[in-house]
Amino acid sequence: METVDETLEVEELIKNCDDPYVKEQYQKVLDIKAGKRKTYSLEEALKFMEQ
Predict the structure, then answer these.
(1) How far, in Å, CA of 30 to CA of 7, rounded?
(2) CA-CA distance, 51 to 11, in Å (whole number)?
(3) Which of the chain's termini has less CB crowding within 10 Å, N or C?
(4) How many CA atoms lie within 13 A of 9 on its CB side?
């Protein structure tokens, strides 16, 4: 079970991170945990696979 502390921790990481790509990934994790996003678009999946 996810705690509020975990979410705050990730939010701190986003705030303190200078890399826009990493920030975006953290934000996606938060959005998915919050239930805002359940899936990735095909474009995102392809981009992720290229990494």
Answers:
(1) 7
(2) 23
(3) N
(4) 5
User: Which residue is listed with tokens 């826009």?
Assistant: 20
Helix (H, G, I), strand (E, B) or coil at 51: coil
Question: DSSP 3-state assignment of 36?
Answer: coil
Nearest to 30 by CA among 1, 51, 9: 9
Higher local confidence (pLDDT), 44 or 39: 44
Question: In degrees, to the nearest 5, what angle opens at C-alpha 31 toward C-alphas 27 and 32?
Answer: 120
Give 21-36 pLDDT, tens digit per residue: 888 887 887 777 777 7
**Domain housing 12:** 4-50
